[in-house]
Amino acid sequence: MLSGVESELTIRVADELLMFLPAARRDRVSRVPCDGTSTLGHLVESLGVPLPEVGRMTVAGAPADPSVRPEPGADVRVEAVPRPQPVPLEPGLAAPRFVLDVHLGTLARRMRLLGLDTAYRNDMDDPALVVQANEERRVLLTQDRGLLRRRALWFGAYVRGSRPDDQLRDVLGRFAPALRPWTRCTACNGDLVAVDKREIEDDLEAGTRRSYDAYGRCTDCGQLYWRGAHGGHLERIVEEAARLVESVRGNGRAPGPAAGHSGGSWSTSTWS
């Protein structure tokens, strides 16, 4: 029977993953009980680190996947996912599609502003989110660590930051997706198309009708868009996002086209 150090293994966790460990045990090096039958994935998650946040792992210097069963006494190293992180894309797509949990509504609207296909509903429970992510091949974004530990989930990511600005920067820095600003409805995720002012005059307030000539309409929910009082604020969000994605891709770490503007510039009073 093994005892003491012989029944343990050493796990060295990358600095980027320390945030997932309990505050009282937030050390780069952890000693973990090991019986020789537990998988590497189970042992890493027992520390608090969700596997979707884990990149390369090694056991005694050799690459290892989560199903490996380390022997007691082994030395394990756990790296964070690479940034930008590749995502398998469905044919014809230039960027990943996403689904966000109920706590990330503002982030969802900002991602839609950038033209990212972003599903969001404020009444979706965890099982439904996993089903949608899997069926539609969407990356599930969440701040729920338990949700990321669901074995059925095909692809998930933890969103860092408490402010929408920080959350958006985290998502863009992680995936460096191709952007198509001003092409999606921030309310429902539908596609925006230009619409002739004469077709919608009866739907506009008099002040709006006098002040603006260019309009867009969502093909799904019918929401109208125009360049209103929020235009400057939205422009800054889009410009900062484009610079960030171009910077990440400029480091030579992400394939594909650079981010860029596409379509018109719309805003409505519904933005928040």
From TrEMBL:
Span of domain Ubiquitin Mut7-C: 8-79
Residues of the Mut7-C RNAse domain: 96-237
Region of interest: Disordered: 250-272
Entry-linked InterPro entries: Mut7-C_RNAse_dom, Ub_Mut7C
Protein name: Mut7-C ubiquitin/RNAse domain-containing protein
Species whose genome carries this gene: Actinomadura hallensis
Organism taxonomic ancestry: Bacteria, Bacillati, Actinomycetota, Actinomycetes, Streptosporangiales
